[in-house]
Structure formats: C-alpha cells, structure tokens
Design goal:
By secondary structure, the chain is an all-alpha fold. It has helices at residues 18-36, 39-69.
C-alpha cells in the first residue's frame, strides 16, 4: 500500500494559502502607513504580521511535515 503524504497547503481553503496570507499582511502594513503616517502604529502592526507569517508560513508547515514523516 502506497500512502502519499498530503501536502499541508492542500488542506487549507483559498483564504488561508501563502499568497493570501502574504497579500493581506502587505495590504494591512502598507495601508496603515498610507492612511495614518504614524510609525508608532504601523511598526507594531507590521511586527505582529511578521510574527504571524513566521508562525503560519514557516513553523506550522515545518511541524506538519515532521509529523507526516514520523
């Protein structure tokens, strides 16, 4: 029996794909600066988005891959 591992991103809906996560984060960060012109607001927003990207674009898929290979 040949069991192929399921790709992590194939399990996710369209709004939770890497391109949509990146695009949404960029729009929010750039929009914050464009509309507010306040670094003290835009910087924490951008840092939170970067943390979200690291978590959901790097760490979660890597953990899923390790689990599938175990």
């Amino acid at each position: 029996m040949n069991l192929q591992p399921v790709a992590f991103w194939s399990l996710k809906p369209w709004w939770c794909q890497p391109w949509s996560i990146l695009l949404t984060g960029l729009v929010i960060s750039i929009g914050s600066w464009f509309f507010l012109h306040r670094l003290w607001i835009t910087l924490p927003i951008t840092l939170a988005i970067l943390a979200w990207w690291i978590l959901f674009l790097v760490l979660v898929p890597a953990a899923y891959s390790r689990q599938e290979n175990a």
